[in-house]
Task: structure prediction
Amino acid sequence: MAGIVPSRRVRGTPFSAGVEAAGAQAYTVYNRMLLPSYFESYTADYRHLKDHVQVWDVAVERQVSIKGPDALKLMKRMSPRDMNRMAQDQCYYVPICDHKGGMLNDPVALKIAEDHYWLSIADGDLLQWALGLAIGQNMDVEVFEPDVSPLAVQGPKAEDLMVRVFGEDVRNIRFFRYKRMLFMENEFIVARSGWSKQGGFEIYVEGEYNGMPLWQALFAAGTDLNVRAGCPNLIERIEGGLLSYGSDMRRENTPIEAGLAKFCNSPDDYIGRSVIEAQKAHGPNRIICPIAIEGAEDLPHNALGWNVYNKETWVGLISSATWSPDFNINVAIGMIERGHWDAGTVLQVDTGAGMRQAMIKEKFWI
Amino acid sequence: MAGIVPSRRVRGTPFSAGVEAAGAQAYTVYNRMLLPSYFESYTADYRHLKDHVQVWDVAVERQVSIKGPDALKLMKRMSPRDMNRMAQDQCYYVPICDHKGGMLNDPVALKIAEDHYWLSIADGDLLQWALGLAIGQNMDVEVFEPDVSPLAVQGPKAEDLMVRVFGEDVRNIRFFRYKRMLFMENEFIVARSGWSKQGGFEIYVEGEYNGMPLWQALFAAGTDLNVRAGCPNLIERIEGGLLSYGSDMRRENTPIEAGLAKFCNSPDDYIGRSVIEAQKAHGPNRIICPIAIEGAEDLPHNALGWNVYNKETWVGLISSATWSPDFNINVAIGMIERGHWDAGTVLQVDTGAGMRQAMIKEKFWI
Result:
């Protein structure tokens, strides 16, 4: 594995001291920040995540703050999702597209106030898209990156741990809703959300200097819950069908192709609308599928994507794949062409280390 | 040094096979691609770069292609630099700013045709800025990332090596100009440019599959010139005052603060104009300076930036610093506040491993 040189340009996070002390063994870079890839191993981290509770440094989920009289107007231009009924404590998963429906990012939007939204972004400078649109259309909004670094608490014991630090009211936070909770002298937004299917919360830590005190408080409170440092887990997220923008879908894909049609219900004139509405009416030419790949726990690392064939015909690409201990199969995410995506279809996958048989599944595993 | 996990999202380049075989020892991530940091060592790479010729994988310099009837109109909106007299074989270093003059990137623009430009970008999705503006203002242009990966040939023997692969006409390429040169069946844009002060060229390789054949041809032709794989070198680029966007200047800085006033001469109504013109008239409140730090070759790694003081007063930040074997001093780049930036001013630098005395220099070292 290649080593990475830290720099001012590729930075650590407010929680890096904790992450390093906890023994992160490998990283990726996400929004020009370090994001741990695993601590003990993908498999050991996965087991622990499903049984206990983990604290994740997801400061890489940078916020794009959109604030001002035209904030909702800009959100409506950018969002295929209906923004009209969004409540002030709500989080919306929002695919963001160009004029041809090509995905530019897939943030979680938080409504902070009537005239203020945060976009908690996937990897990519969505700030520049929002800023370009706002300036191009003379909108009265400020678009900037605030000093906010999310920390996630994930796993079946997440709620119990959170209650110990933030109080009983944590239990009343509904899924993809948030409350403002007090930690020491600071009020942070705490949402029931996170990039796992094990349940949990994301704390939007404002003020870099608040990072380590909160990290330490969570670990101090959770010893008997077996709390550990963790990170988004490759195995668990594929089982759960959680898509990674840049890996599983890109600008060349629409949200309909990414299986996100249900988030494209805006009645407003958003950018990309005509292409997206046409694909909703007629179906896309390819779509994200859950795929099981046969064979044992010996797949090579998939860093490039693997071509998928139906006999002689190229029918798509597998973007993410790994062995699942719980389902005893290689779980995968792939973009498959029309005519070949019915559940039960048997395909062949070129892994670069031999061909494997694979099958389209009805749904993801979790 | 932390290890980095390769993925579809953080990709290799068309030259990665060559880079790995040549023994890159560490990487950074730049535009979601791997960029080598050094091969033998910073110092050994530096010595070789100044004496011989190196081939650099700078595929991370992604191109933003702006093509269509409104291409020049969009360029004029984005560029503080006068675009009116740019010739069709010319390369322009262009700081790109928001409406408050805050730098969003500092690409090299290439004029490909009257209605077609490439922006060879620094780290950051400038594509989303250009696309947002274009769509926001209903401009008739396509904004996309083409399959182009620059390869640099740098060092005093660069011209001799290039002639062997592309022919004698290489010698006629002027600084920051380009010619279309034939390699096998392909015509590539070859510019006299690159992120060193040792002279050399950048080849804009179109078609990923052309990467390794060109890499191999350069190495085969250059054995007696002592050609080696290299990369932008930390020491040489600080000596030469080559700024790194994201490290030395960011959105909170204007191009005037970054010492780039001479590139802000546009007569057109570009974004950020009023702030930039005011700073040109009255001077900025801080500016990039060359700084010499006293002491021996034992500075710690500067990954966060170092605060700079004038006695009790905070006066700026050193963003890049390293030992220079040729100048026998620690060379540094810092942003220094008004009133403290005169050459000869003695300052104190908090390196995190003790205070060091430092001095503002008249100019960079090369």
Summary: Chain B is about 20% helix and 30% strand. The CA atoms of residues 44 and 269 of chain B lie 47 Å apart. Chain B touches chain A through 52 residues (CB under 8 Å).
